[in-house]
Amino acid sequence: MKRFALTFILLVLSATLLLAHNGTKDPFVIKRMELMMSMAENTKVLGQMMKKKIEFDAESATKALWEIGELSMATPAAFKVNASDPKSEAKSIIWDEFNYFTDLAIQLGDSAAGTTIKSYKDLRPALMQIGAGCKSCHSKYRE
């Protein structure tokens, strides 16, 4: 059941981000969407390894995890400007609670940085941890 839930989250995130880019005009919103798309792409690498759709490679997994951490740390700066676009899925509460939003992004970055993937068995806990971090932010701050 957990595998299904994780797969579903990854698919929805990827599909939503792909559709959201179409027709977006505001450059700040585009930058935010690109950041989130990069985060989803790196998470997808880990998910595909876990589902054995691509071969496990500790170096690639570690790189994907590192990228997720870096992108998480860059998230507050990408949202610093309260830009809007009809295609944006960011709720306005982000800017009302920007300090908490920033804390969540930093927690995800720290979590990714503190996670090690040396073997296939490390993928599931890493993905569950990353997924929980993404969900904590998306459930509150994303349409």
Total domains: 1
**Rg, alpha carbons:** 15 Å
Number of helix segments? Answer: 6
Q: Uncertain regions: pLDDT < 50 for 5+ in a row? A: none
3D architecture notes:
The chain has one domain (2-76, 87-141): Up-down Bundle (Four Helix Bundle (Hemerythrin (Met), subunit A)). 73% of the residues lie in helices and 0% in strands. The protein has 6 helices and no strands. The protein starts with a helix and ends with a helix. The model has no long low-confidence stretch (mean pLDDT 89).
Strand and helix layout:
Blueprint: H1 2-21, H2 27-50, H3 58-78, H4 93-96, H5 98-113, H6 123-141
Brief descriptors of the model:
single chain, 143 residues, mainly alpha, Four Helix Bundle (Hemerythrin (Met), subunit A), 6 helices, elongated
Can you describe this structure in just a few lines?
This protein is an all-alpha fold. The protein has six helices and no strands.
